[in-house]
Amino acid sequence: MAVNLKGRNFLALKDFTPEEIKYLIDLAADVKDKKKKGIPVNHYQDKNIALVFEKTSTRTRCSFEVAAHDMGMGVTYLDPLGSQIGKKESIADTARVLGRMYDGIEYRGYGQEIVEELAKYAGVPVWNGLTNEFHPTQMLADLLTIQEHLGRIKGVKLTYMGDARYNMGNSLMVVCSKMGMHFTACTSKDYFPDAGLVELCNGYAKESGGSVTLTEDVQSGTKDADVIYTDVWVSMGEPDEVWAERINKLSPYQVNKKVMDNAADSAIFMHCLPAFHDLKTQIGKEVYEKFGKDGLEVTDEVFESGKSVVFDEAENRMHTIKAVMMATLGEV
Ligand code: CP
Ligand code: NVA
Question: What is the pTM assigned to this prediction?
Answer without folding.
Answer: 0.98
